[in-house]
Amino acid sequence: MTSEAIPAEVGFEACIMDIDVDGLSKGHETRPSDATAARNDTFQRASGATAFASIGLLAFAVPTFIRVAKEHWTTESGVHGPIILATGLWLIWREREWITAHRIVHDGWLWILPFLTLSSLWLLARMFQIVSVESAALYLLLVGSGWLYFGAAVVKRLWFPILYLAFMVVLPASVVDQVTQPLKLWISFAAASLLDLTGYPVASTGAIIQIGQYQLLVEDACAGLMSLFSLSAIGLFYVYLVAGNDSRRAVILMAAILPMAVLSNLVRVIVLALLTYHAGSKAAQGFMHDMAGLLTFSVSLAGMFAADAVVARTVLSKPAQT
């Protein structure tokens, strides 16, 4: 058996043929597989649908936010709206990594009927300028869109921010009247009684306080509506961040919100009545009236923080009995 030597030139040419760059760049161009192309097409369609849905939601949200900002946030009872919006979005933003990791898109078409119903309700409320129904319909549309796009697990995870943002919904005037009427009557009676004990010529009839020659009408804002809803929202936010899983601390803080709001506004009405009696009705209106409201809210908020500190050092420092 004989062996023949292979010329060096042949082996060199074979190596050149194996690594032919021109063949790779021209004659053997790589092409994506059918599966990759299908995934790319699906991603593009999903991105287009997401962009279209986002534009549609903006078409609902922007006009409503503009109306609420002009008609409600500029009033004393709605001044907490921008604060709730900013802090609520922050609560959602800080969960962005968890949301991305657990996002599950819902399939099917069962969502169309409730979305059409809410959209029609929003349109009717928009046409007839019913801002309470319009804001409620938008809120439900946004929550439903979040459930559809991110999944039930994400909505469950964000239960508190969703509940917290519900404070932005404008309440109907009839509900406001029913809630504030007992507060107005009680605050008017209590303020007149306390002033009477100190010797001031004062009397009350319903929500009207007669002090000297002046008459004061205790309105919704003065009756604690602004402090009640603002403190409830901010109190929930504070409890969620500070109390955590401590249910006792959360219950005590939430129970302290209502009496603090009512008592602080009782002091506000008394201060305004004294300003009216000693300096005239003009002195108690305008800037002084607004400053009294801001001071009352600040004192209520500080009182809630102080109560939390006292509770944390006394009640919660002791272990719970089982």
Key descriptive features of the protein:
mainly alpha; 70% helix; globular; 322 residues; 3 strands; 2 domains; disordered N terminus; three-stranded antiparallel β-sheet
- Structural class based on helices, strands and sheet pairing: mainly alpha
Instruction: Specify the number of helices.
Output: 13
Q: Look at the structure and give the mean pLDDT.
A: 77
What fraction of the residues are assigned to beta strands by DSSP?
under 5%
The outline comes out as: globular
How many domain regions? 2
How do the strands line up in the largest sheet? 1-2-3
Assign a percent range to the helix content. over 70%
Low confidence ranges: 1-30, 38-45
- How far apart, in Å, are the first and last alpha carbons? 97 Å
Q: H/E element string?
A: HHHHHHHHHHEEEHHH
Radius of gyration: 33 Å
Let me know the largest β-sheet.
3 strands, antiparallel
Can you tell me about this structure?
The protein is mainly alpha-helical and 322 residues long. It folds into two domains: 119 residues, no CATH class; 141 residues, no CATH class. Helices cover 70% and strands 4% of the residues. The protein has a three-stranded antiparallel β-sheet. α11 packs antiparallel against α12. The longest helix is centred in the N-terminal third of the chain and has 38 residues. The radius of gyration is 33 Å and the shape is globular. The N terminus is likely disordered.
